[in-house]
Amino acid sequence: MATPVGNLQDITLRALDVLKSVQLIAAEDTRTSRHLLEHYGIPTPLTSLHEHNEAGAAQRIVEALGRGQAVALISDAGTPAISDPGAMLVRRVRAAGFPVVPVPGPSALAAAVSVAGLEPGTFLFLGFLPAQPAARRRRLEQVRALPFAVVLYEAPHRLRECIDDLAELLGGERELVIARELTKLFESVHVCMLGEAGDWIDADPNRRRGEFVLVIGPPPPCADPALDEAQRVLTLLLAEVPLKQAVRLCADITGVKRNLLYRQALALKSAQDDAP
Ligand code: SAM
Prior knowledge:
Order of helices and strands: HEHEHEHHEHEHEEHEHHH
CATH class of the largest domain: Alpha Beta
Structural class: alpha/beta
Bound molecules: S-adenosylmethionine
Number of domains: 3
Helix content: 40-55%
Strand content: 5-15%
CATH superfamily of the largest domain: Tetrapyrrole methylase, C-terminal domain
């Protein structure tokens, strides 16, 4: 279940009810979560579940469920299992035959996207990029040409080098929204072009402090001439032959990868279907 990403008032009435009524709360860091529970006067006992003990903790939680207890899972901030532990627990609990119920609420991801002004509101969420520079650059190369906005979490000490890699590999002309310290005292949302972001950050040391979500707008329509040509060919083929055949022929003609074309074909098809 979701807990605040900063401002303690960002918690739902239902989340408070659930935290009060369960017999046990599994928390990523029990000290952090105790602060939240004390703020709301909730005495429910805590047990720890973090990335290094998730398998053992999941086993104990399944046993507790077997004894008829109700258990809530929370992370340090936001929604569990989004760049946070929880997915393994969800799977083990479900495999053991118990229901898993979402209690939705804050997530830094949703908060940042909600102020990014993305049109048409679709994006690819990558969580944290790999810390190792070569792996990070490989990941960015994988998504470079995809026609989607990209949303990332980034740690403050890696922000500057991350921005450099983003500008180099995705192109300085893509829009960047730097959402920092959302819902907290020093909240800021800065919009610039990727190519300008390094200088903007360097101009004030405070701009690299805190927690960050980066939202990179989709590539401009003409960013990759090969993809533009593929889209033109694909559109013509889709009017004549079934989708799979159109993708195969288009890949043969243009050399663009089939999986990329397949996604594009689905998007074109649904745009055609939606057309009045
Ligand atoms: N599961 C959480 C969620 O749903 O938001 C995210 C957990 S992830 C370990 C923590 C990262 O989320 C931070 O490093 C930062 O990138 C982002 N984040 C969390 N709180 C934030 C905030 N208040 N403002 C901006 N980014 C935040």
